[in-house]
Write a structure and sequence with these properties.
Blueprint (H helix, E strand, L loop, with lengths): L1 H72 L2 H21 L1 H18 L2 H6 L1
Helix pairs in contact: 1-2
Length: 124
């Protein structure tokens, strides 16, 4: 009789521990998702800020180059045309290389972020 009660108590204890473990795993998964989304959003915000600042810098540098090229080209309109052509060529080069320069790094970053096992990372 005593062995039966002890077995029942052990079984109840085991069931409680399993429920607690499942609850803790659920909380861990939620925290892991929050961590990964935080990294993703902060990276996106950083990239957006860098793009805006880069566009502003390109705008001002293009005006600087226009006025620097004006004496060489001979007219302000010609200098604008030269700088506009250079910017179009840069845009075409970026479009042509978009898979190597944009898509692959984004895919690698997202795969590393979401598919990397965080337990392995924390053990190292």
């Amino acid at each position: 009789m005593f062995a039966n009660e002890n077995s029942i108590n052990n079984l109840e204890s085991l069931v409680k521990e399993i429920k607690k473990y499942i609850e803790l795993q659920g909380q861990y998964i939620k925290l892991d998702i929050v961590e990964k989304l935080t990294v993703l959003l902060s990276t996106l915000i950083l990239i957006l800020i860098l793009i805006v600042l880069g566009m502003m810098a390109l705008f001002y540098f293009s005006f600087m180059l226009v006025y620097a090229l004006e004496p060489v080209v001979g007219s302000l309109i010609g200098a604008y045309a030269v700088i506009g052509g250079v910017i179009l060529l840069l845009g075409a080069a970026v479009y042509r290389m978009r898979k190597q320069w944009i898509f692959r790094p984004i895919v690698n970053f997202l795969a590393k972020l979401f598919l990397e096992d965080t337990t392995e990372k924390k053990e190292q």
